[in-house]
């Protein structure tokens, strides 16, 4: 099976140079967080990966990151997409650098892959060689450790996670049981970079097997 990339898009971005105190309290900003940057993205898991990258390339923290219910096909508006992320930093320039780093990941980095010709059946077998502050906290691991970020539709994800965990010396650090906000499922696996890569390959192979023969076992 030839897997075609399914890329996300950044739909909207804005920077607030000096955030109002009431909003700062809602985001629980520290005194050093004077500026925030916001972005919406069409695919949530790519968005989470992108804002994590921002923490590695700019002096910013992820202070808000959420998926929207039912996915981008049912979004609240043309600029909503499937994900919103908010970065906070000491200056507008740092926040801008963070947004630019996130946009590069969305445009040219992490992506889903299509399992069918229409691109309606997709999988995310992504390996992060060095996590930033955000995903490290989500997974409960040390900053800079490798991570396999594995997402697929519900049944495929459960079948794939089992294969991934059996294929390499990895640990399930975070489980996304179905249904999630976007009705996908999966998990974050931690281990060495080679182990995470092997786990992601096994996950992908298992998901493809389901896609190619969904009723193999009745």
Structure in words:
- This is Carboxysome-related structural protein with putative role in ethanolamine utilization.
- 36% of the residues lie in helices and 27% in strands.
- It has 6 helices and 10 strands; from the N terminus they run ββαβαββαββαβαββα.
- It has a 6-stranded antiparallel β-sheet with strand order 1-6-7-8-10-9, sandwiched between helices. Strands 2-3-5-4 form a 4-stranded antiparallel β-sheet, with helices on one face.
- Strand 6 and strand 7 form a beta hairpin.
- The protein is globular, with a radius of gyration of 18 Å.
Mean pLDDT: 96
Widest β-sheet, arrangement of strands: 1-6-7-8-10-9
What is the gyration radius calculated from CA atoms?
Answer: 18 Å
Per DSSP E runs of 2 or more residues, the count of β-strands stands at: 10
Overall outline? globular
Discrete helix count: 6
In terms of DSSP E residues, the strand content is 25-35%
Largest sheet: 6 strands, antiparallel
SS class: alpha+beta
Considering DSSP H and I runs of 4 or more, what fraction of the residues is helical? 25-40%
Distance between the termini: 24 Å
Low-confidence stretches: none
Order of helices and strands: EEHEHEEHEEHEHEEH
Protein name: Carboxysome-related structural protein with putative role in ethanolamine utilization
Organism: Kyrpidia spormannii
């Amino acid at each position: 099976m030839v897997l075609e990339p399914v890329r996300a898009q950044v739909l909207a971005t804005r920077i607030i140079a000096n955030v109002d105190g009431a909003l700062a309290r809602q985001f629980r900003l520290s005194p050093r967080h004077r500026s925030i940057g916001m972005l919406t993205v069409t695919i949530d898991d790519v968005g989470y990966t992108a804002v994590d990258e921002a923490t590695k390339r700019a002096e910013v923290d992820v202070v808000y990151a959420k998926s929207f219910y039912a996915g981008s096909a049912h979004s609240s508006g043309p600029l909503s997409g499937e994900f919103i992320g908010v970065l906070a930093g000491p200056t507008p320039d740092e926040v801008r650098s963070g947004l630019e780093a996130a946009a590069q990941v969305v445009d040219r980095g992490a992506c889903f892959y299509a399992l069918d010709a229409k691109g309606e059946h997709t999988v995310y077998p992504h390996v992060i060689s060095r996590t930033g502050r955000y995903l490290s906290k989500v997974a409960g691991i040390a900053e800079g450790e490798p991570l396999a970020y594995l997402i697929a539709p519900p049944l495929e994800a459960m079948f794939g996670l089992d294969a991934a965990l059996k294929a390499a010396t990895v640990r399930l650090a975070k489980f996304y049981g179905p249904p999630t906000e976007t009705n996908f499922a999966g998990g974050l696996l931690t281990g060495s970079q080679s182990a995470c890569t092997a786990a992601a390959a096994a996950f992908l192979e298992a998901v493809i097997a389901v896609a190619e023969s969904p009723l193999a076992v009745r």
